Amino acid sequence: MNISVPLIIKKIPPKGYHIFVDGKIMRKKIRFLIDTGASKSVVDKSFAEKNFTTSLITETDHQTTGLGTNIPNSSFIRLHHIRIGDQKIKPLQFALLDLSVVNDAYSLAKLEKVNAIIGGDILKKYGCVIDYNAAILTFR
């Protein structure tokens, strides 16, 4: 059964667009950025530390590349009760990154802050299709 979720499409100066969906993680309402170029889904580290128990967080010495930088020690969080519209996402390990650079840019563009990024891991697992014209994200 396909589930469709409305996309929020915002113009990013000078001639670009970013796409978002609203959802929840463990009953916390958040705005997700959809990033087809991100291999892994991400939660903002400070948001996670403020809203979720630290027992869900694991540290590794694995190097991660993200947001234009290499991070020598990676942090991950396993989260449950994730919803995007009516779509339930099975418990998933998110990378933890500081999204302040992204949110600073969004602030300058007068856009709402994001607390998480939906990456290729979720998009592939759920066979997601992005329809820009209809402004819909479909989970298959």
Write up this protein.
The mean pLDDT is 90. The longest helix is centred in the last third of the chain and has 9 residues. The strands form 3 sheets. Strands 2, 3, 4, 5, 6, 9, 10, 11, 12 and 13 form a 10-stranded mixed sheet that branches. This protein has a 3-stranded antiparallel sheet with strand order 1-15-14, with no helix packed on it. A two-stranded antiparallel sheet has the order 7-8. The termini are close together. It is built from 3 helices and 15 strands. It is an alpha+beta fold and 140 residues long.
Short recap of the structure:
The chain has 140 residues and is of the alpha+beta class. The chain is built from 3 helices and 15 strands.
How much is the average pLDDT? 90
Q: Which structural class should the secondary elements be placed in? A: alpha+beta
Give the tally of β-strands.
15
Q: What is the percentage of strand-forming residues?
A: over 45%
Most strands sheet: 10 strands, mixed
- Helix-strand string: EEEEEHEEEEEEEHEHEE
